[in-house]
Amino acid sequence: MNQENTTVVATLYKFVRLPDYCELQAPLLSFCQEQSIKGTILLATEGINGTIAGSRTAIDQVLAFLRHDSRLVDLEHKESYTHIPPFRRMKVRLKREIVTLGIPEVDPNQRVGKYVSPQEWNALLLDPNVTVVDTRNDYEVSIGTFKRARNPHTHIFREFPDYVSKNLHPDKNQKIALFCTGGIRCEKASSYLLSQGFQEVYHLKGGILKYLEEVTGEESLWEGECFVFDDRGVVNPQGTMEEC
């Protein structure tokens, strides 16, 4: 996509201790509004999660503002581009969790599975000894997923523990690989599996969006499109990820 006169869409998250998250809300919202940024950012004691959209300059300024906090200095983000602004207003919300599993003792700040880069992900998908699980919800999976991935048929992420208890066991599923849209759900899911006694748990670093950005053409094992939570609805599996 020609990036001139386009809106930059940035997705970001980080599990990090933010005990003062309530105090961060007002200045962050004010700064985003000053830059004419639109989207939603969630703040909780366990970290930050959001998707924002705006001009190239505005996105860079907001990311710099966030990384000025020493706890977010290594905050990673992913980008795509659209000709149609995907959000109507800016919101910074305070939450109990930045992705809701409903089990407070599951803490990705303490323990998570092994990160797998997009370039290494195909090896896990092709390994018959690895159980590959899509941690997204059923309507997202129906639009597109990886070859050989299991669909938990969940409607909300809170249902994932029930899926695990009924379908997975540490003795039978000794190697598990998890993935999701941007990396946040599968990171928390990996923490949950480790708390349940699973020993070898992997998750796709940067999620599907990063994979589609870096693994293209015949090398890609992705099938279909990827659902996103904004007005675009889905993104296609091309490197620039234009709106569909």
Automatic annotation (TrEMBL):
- Presence of the UniProt keyword tRNA processing in the record: yes
- Keyword line: Oxidoreductase, Transferase, tRNA processing
Give a single Pfam family match. Answer: Rhodanese
Rhodanese domain location: 126-220
Could you tell me the superkingdom of the organism this chain comes from?
Bacteria
What PROSITE patterns does the annotation carry?
Answer: RHODANESE_3
The record's InterPro entries line, in alphabetical order, gives: Rhodanese-like_dom (IPR001763), Rhodanese-like_dom_sf (IPR036873), TrhO (IPR020936), TRHO_N (IPR040503)
Catalytic reactions of this protein = uridine(34) in tRNA + AH2 + O2 = 5-hydroxyuridine(34) in tRNA + A + H2O
Its signal peptide is none
Quote the EC number: 1.14.-.-
Protein's UniProt name: tRNA uridine(34) hydroxylase
Q: Which gene encodes it?
A: trhO
